[in-house]
Amino acid sequence: MTHIFGYAAGTERLDLKAVRLNQAGTLRINLSRIILALKILVSIILGLGIAREAVMAIIGTETVLKDLRHFTLDAERSLPTWYESSSMVAIAFILGIIAALSRSNDRENTRHWTILAIIFLLMSVDSTVSFHEVAVAPLRNAFHLTGAFYFSWVVLAAPMVAAVGFYYLPFLFRLPGSTALRFILAGAVYVGGALGTEFLCGYIATAFGMETALYKTVAASQEILESIGLTMFLIGLLRHLGSLASLLRIDIRAEPA
Fold first, then answer.
1. I need a labelling partner for 131 at 20 to 30 A (CA). Which of 3, 96, 176, 248 fits?
2. What whole-number distance in Å separates Cα of residue 244 and Cα of residue 69?
3. Whole-angstrom distance, CA of residue 241 vs CA of residue 201
4. Distance, CA of 9 to chain centre
5. Which residues contact 140 (CB under 8 A, 6 or more apart)?
6. Got the DSSP string for 171-187?
7. Cα separation of 132 and 28, whole Å?
8. Torsions phi, psi of 28, nearest 5?
9. Tens of pLDDT, residues 198-221
10. Is the pLDDT reported for residue 95 higher than 70?
11. Which helix (H) or strand (E) holds 40?
12. What would the pLDDT profile of 217-234 be if each residue is shown by its tens digit?
């Protein structure tokens, strides 16, 4: 008898609305409820981050609440950072599933799905440990970068993003129209946040300083756009996976030792 989360398959039913296990042992996943849960989760996390910025602007950091760092939108080791990294891992996982399914019915796109899964897995690592920041000081000092290029990692990232976008154009044209549109919109929001606002943050940091309200507002908007873009892409992937449901079969078994 198989046990899942403490319930016995065949005798119990999971009391979850998004994921259900019926008496026949069939796992049923309600994508609509998962998508709704994602929207609620990102709304709560971003709402807490925005509320934190407002509270800190009113009372400052020299209180018993300190700076409420764990809810900060523009900081490492915070709830928004955890959400971004977790979203990237989830995206990489779903992309891997779609890549595996495409081997049987869509081999032309298998490579693109696989590469995208690897990219997002690497992005999740960088989101946590910030490898990209290693390049900031050397590039800035070597080329005397200021203004929009003050956060100099964008000098490397911008052409890389452009190259990936160009490479994936044929792939997007091969996808269903609604799926391609979701991916394009999600990518525009995410890249606009990750790169677009980073250029703006660099200019503001150079001209006015990083402790100004303007800089903090733009930096917070960067994290908001990134989280929304990732959520949009994750939802788009879930909807696309739902359209492939007839090809998906999960068989979990314990092989004898």
1. 96
2. 41
3. 36
4. 33
5. 149, 150, 152
6. HHHHS-HHHHHHHHHHH
7. 40
8. -115, 130
9. 999 999 999 999 888 899 889 999
10. yes
11. helix 31-59
12. 899 999 999 999 999 999
Is residue 18 within 8 A of residue 34, CB to CB? The reply is yes
Long-range contacts of 108-113 (CB under 8 A, 24+ apart): 108/174, 109/171, 109/174, 109/175, 112/168, 112/171
pLDDT at 193: 93
Q: How many helices (H) and strands (E) would you count in the chain?
A: 9, 4
User: Helix (H, G, I), strand (E, B), or coil: what is residue 73?
Assistant: coil
Are 27 and 250 within 8 A, CB to CB? yes
- List the beta bridge partners of residue 21: 27
What tokens were used for 152?
């100099």
SS3 27: strand
Please provide the DSSP assignment of 76-134 as one string. Answer: SSSHHHHHHHHHHHHHHHHHHHHHHHHHHH-HHHHHHHHHHHHHHHHHHHHHHH-GGGG
Pair 238, 94: CB distance under 8 Å? yes
Report which of residues 13 and 177 the model is more confident about: 177
Provide the whole-model pTM.
0.83
Tokens of 78: 């915070």
pLDDT in tens, 141-159: 887 888 898 888 888 899 9
Would strands 7-8 and 3-4 be described as parallel, antiparallel, or unpaired? antiparallel
How, if at all, do strands 19-21 and 27-29 pair?
A: antiparallel
Q: At residue 17, does pLDDT exceed 70?
A: no
Measured between alpha carbons, how far is 247 from 101 in angstroms, rounded to an integer? 7
Structure tokens at 127: 């989101």
53-64 as b/e: b if 16+ CB within 10 A: beebeeeeeeee
Report the Cα 254 to chain-centroid distance in Å.
Answer: 33
